Amino acid sequence: MLRFVVRRLLQVVPTLLLLSILVFAWLRNLPGGPAVALLGDRATPERVAQLNALYGLDDPLPVQYGKFLGRAASGDFGTSSITGEPVLAEIARALPATLELSIAALAIAVALGIPLGYLAAVNRGRSLDVSTVIGTLVGVAVPVFFLGYVLKAVFAVELGWFPPSGRQTVGLDATNVTGFAVLDGVLTREWDASLDALSHLVLPAVALATIPLAVIVRITRASVLDVLDSDFVRTANSKGLTPATVRGRHVLRNALLPVSTVIGLQVGLLLAGAVLTERVFVWGGLGTLLADAITLRDYPRLQAILLLGALIYIVVNLLVDISYAVIDPRVRL
Q: What domains are there in the chain, each with its CATH number?
């Protein structure tokens, strides 16, 4: 098991290097370039030339990349052209908000998706199966931002059950420990702050979880149906094992392999969907930083966020690979 994990870890480094090269080259080839983005309306040819010389932007791309890699290795991703703050400090403040939202959405998708997919499969052709399939089609088809506005209109404006935006009520005296608002309230025993943060989290988490939930349900259903028709399941049934034993030990465990892959892939979808969800619910996480960076062409911020997203995606897929080895010992070979 240890050798399997080490092999996967060794693959992370070249993958990150390749992604950093692609992101670096792509940003340097965008119209205008970093100098124009930094200067804005003051971007005269003379000032652009001065700025390029000052920051080495007129050096060959391999030289620029080498300098960038050296600074990134020390944690220096430059300063934001919007706020003038170090990009890493901005990301450190915004990252907990996006992680809290994404973790909550993924928890909803997994907690509901696997049982629903399993129940739909074992009740193949019945009303539960048909309604589940129709529901997943609707879930995939509805855009995240549209669903977010609908949830706000119904449950925040009309019914008043949940707050319409933000992470916590303005003016609430809450202690910030980790940046995760719900967790901070638990750690400091400020239960009112934790409940307030949880009430703000519900609507954006449900909106963001809809598409991953639909995908997990469909993949779980298809995987369980495939395993139910396998020879080893028929053999287990013929031995007189109880249905609960067959389905729990043989069916569900083998069906979870493709589901694990899909859960890992959904992380990228959650990070992309968080941009729209955070804009709708004024969440103030990485999605907001990324949207502002794209709109205002903040190259240092955009570069750092894209690389961070790639790193998170790689780490999650590494965890998925490890879960493969735990679920199915044959994968370790």
A: 2-73 (no CATH), 88-332 (1.10.3720.10)
Phi, psi of 30 (to 5 degrees): -70, 150
Neighbours of 189 (CB within 10 A): 9
Give the pLDDT confidence score for residue 179 in this predicted structure: 82
CB within 8 A of 57, min separation 6: which ones? 33, 34, 35, 51, 64
Q: How far apart are CA 152 and CA 174, in angstroms?
A: 24
The DSSP code sequence of 141-207 is: HS-HHHHHHHHIIIIIIIS--S-SSSSS-TT-----SSS-HHHHHHHTT-HHHHHHHHHHHHHHHHH
- Tell me the C-alpha distance between 20 and 26, whole Å: 10
pLDDT digits (tens, 9 = 90+) for 52-102: 666 666 667 787 788 778 877 777 787 877 777 888 888 888 888 888 888
